[in-house]
Design brief:
Helix content: under 10%
Mean pLDDT: 93
Number of helices: 0
Distance between the termini: 16 Å
Structural class: mainly beta
Length: 474
């Protein structure tokens, strides 16, 4: 049986900031493109993955780069001029328009293609009617653009950045007013109206319903049941929030949290090493999914795309839980081998923390990484530095009476027992004795689980540390 896990794409692929859209009979996801082992965000060129609308397990991409940053006329090389989070829309002329910013230069660039997955060619910069480029009138920095083709034929462009610091690039400042919206002409470039401000930052949210979840970045817009849902990353940075309005350009009120990449709000503690977040909603086959990203490799520069089903009551969304089986339309089957890197919870009994830029992990914290940083085509992701403080969670699996044993593949200095539970603080369902090994070694234990559908949480009792590669049901 074909299945899909989180992260969605092959585990050598690092695509954050996902924007899912349906064009024709396929779902296309547009995102930034991190380089594993890179020293900054978004160092790679854009690629576009897609899947059939009737099979969310079948993700693939064409054998070409969809758009190269060197196509942009302002590109000067280095790790500053990188392409941040894009969005895409089908224009009235049938072509596809990709919106992005090149670093913090302050301009919104547009690339164009006759196919939803490209290749795209540089088209121009968003500009005013007088021909002046958006950003050249010393406005606030443009960042993380989003595009909406409304039912009435109007075209709306969203942008904004709410950081505490200001940037001196070309005299521009970050906005203190919040997320902004412009109306565009049919050429997808020329501003007809705007900006209007629709979502507050920490500078103006006090006493409002946005307080505590103020706008930071990651603009995205969806229209659902006649209402407009503005999706954004808050100042908490790890959560994706939404605001609701009857209009695309005004009167938004705070709605709630769609997902947090540390599950804050769903537990009495953070259940994952966390970092910035960016994503949006997909409505497909009478279900809503929230696409987002997680952090790996103990920094913010190796982010991976994930997705979860999210409940909707007709007006509001319920915060989604991070799982290992997000798009699978149900729990994973407890048969065969799984990569350890599909964990949805990874933390320590000593707590967890935000993956800041260049932050070094303490020795008592495990992290997701890749076997060979110079070979991104090798599926070799694993959990490094598993020790007596590490807690690793997988949600969820469907069990039957045939599953009697579980084995793990590890290597390292660990000596003791791997404890497997059916929840974070649940019943012990297996004990696997392990001993030091310099080579990848399989250890096995009896599995006694009473639930039909269950989580699995791995902890360790003993000394030393180990690298955890795979586990297998037998």
């Amino acid at each position: 049986m074909k299945q899909v896990t989180n992260p969605i794409l092959p585990n050598f692929e690092y695509i954050p900031d996902p924007e899912p859209h349906i064009f024709g009979d396929r779902v296309y996801v547009y995102g930034s493109h991190d380089k594993f082992g890179g020293i900054s965000f978004c160092l790679n060129d854009y690629v576009v993955y897609s899947c059939p609308v009737n099979d969310l397990t079948d993700w693939s991409k064409k054998d070409h780069i969809s758009y190269k940053k060197s196509n942009d006329k302002e590109y000067t090389g280095g790790f500053i001029n990188v392409m941040y989070a894009p969005d895409c829309a089908k224009g009235k002329d049938g072509n596809y328009y990709l919106y992005y910013t090149l670093g913090f230069l302050g301009h919104i660039a547009v690339a164009k293609s006759d196919k939803p997955d490209g290749p795209f060619e540089f088209y121009g910069y968003v500009k005013y009617k007088d021909g002046v480029t958006l950003g050249d009138k010393k406005e606030y920095v443009q960042f993380d653009p989003a595009i909406l083709m409304d039912d009435d034929g109007k075209i709306y462009l969203y942008s904004g950045y709410g950081a505490k610091q200001t940037f001196g690039l070309k005299g521009k400042m970050t906005t203190r007013e919040g997320a902004m919206v412009f109306e565009l002409d049919d050429d997808m470039l020329t501003i007809k109206a705007g900006p209007s401000y629709i979502c507050k930052t920490i500078y103006n949210a006090k006493g409002s319903d946005f307080e505590g979840h103020e706008f930071f970045e990651a603009s995205s817009m969806r229209k659902i049941n006649g209402k407009y849902y503005f999706i954004y990353s808050s100042f908490n940075n790890h959560d994706l929030c939404y605001a609701i309005s009857d209009y695309p350009d005004r009167d938004f009120t705070y709605g709630g949290v769609l997902i947090s990449n540390c599950d804050e709000g769903l537990s009495d503690h953070k259940r994952n090493y966390y970092g910035n977040n960016h994503g949006s909603l997909l409505y497909l086959n009478d279900k809503f999914y929230i696409f987002y990203h997680r952090q790996t490799n103990k920094n913010s520069f190796s982010r991976q795309m994930c997705a979860e089903e999210v409940e909707f009551d007709g007006l509001h969304f319920k915060q989604a839980e991070m799982t290992s089986c997000g798009l699978n339309n149900g729990p994973l089957i407890a048969k065969g081998k799984y990569n350890a890197s599909i964990c949805c919870n990874l933390f320590s009994d000593k707590g967890t923390f935000f993956y800041k830029v260049f932050r070094k992990l303490a020795p008592n914290h495990a992290f997701l990484t890749q076997e060979d940083k110079d070979n991104e085509e090798r599926e070799s992701q694993y959990i490094k530095n598993v020790n007596k403080h590490t807690i690793i969670g997988y949600k969820y699996f469907k069990f039957d009476s045939d599953t009697k044993k579980i084995s793990i593949q590890i290597k390292g200095s660990m000596k003791g027992t791997i404890i497997v539970r059916d929840d974070e603080n649940g019943n012990i369902v297996s004990k696997i004795n392990v001993k030091p090994s310099k080579k990848l070694t399989t250890f096995e234990g009896v599995l006694d689980i009473k639930k039909d559908v269950s989580a699995l949480f791995f902890t360790f009792e003993g000394k030393g540390k180990v690298n955890f590669y795979t586990f297998e049901f037998k």
